[in-house]
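cron nightly-structures :: item 1 of 1
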Amino acid sequence: MASHTPKSRTRPARKRATLLPTSPNRPAQTVWLLTVDGAKAQIYVIAPVTFRPTALRDGVFKQSNRPSRAITSDKPGHRGHAGTGRRHSLSLRSDPHNQAETAFVKMVATHINAAAREKRFSRLIVAAPPKAIRDLRDTLNAATQKKIAAEITHEWTKLGVREIERRLKAAMGPEE
C-alpha cells in the first residue's frame, strides 16, 4: 500500500502597495497619508524610503465633537394618541452627531479632491474607521480614487508621529 503524503499548501505572498520608485530613473512619488475620523483629520507627507510622516501645515482639520443632545435645538416633539389621551414622544429620524461627522468627512474629501486636481500628491494612503472610509469613497471623485494606494481601516488620528511611522512600515513596507 502506498502512503499518501499530503501536499504542502503555500499561500501566495500578499501583494503590498509600494511607495518606492520602480526604477532608478524614476523619481519618488509624493505620497500623502490622510488620517481621519468624524471630528479630526490630519494630512502627512510620507518619506519614500523611511516612511517617516511629516505633518502638512495646512492639513489639519478639526470639528467640535459635541453629542447629539448638544447639537439639536429642542427636545423631540410629542404626539397625542387619538381616543386614549396618552402622549408619545417622537424620536429623531436621524442622529445629528452622525450627520455632523459625515459632513466633516465630506468637507475633508472636498479638500483632498482639490489637492488632487492641483497635483499636490501622486498617491494617497487613507487610515480611517470603516464609516469614515465609506463617506470618503462617496465623496472623492474618480480621479482622486485612482490615486489611493491603500486604505487602512483603523483610527490613527490619536497616534503620534512615531507610532504612525511604525504602523505604516508594518502595513506598507517591503516584504523581507
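cron nightly-structures :: done
The first strand starts at residue 31 and ends at 36.
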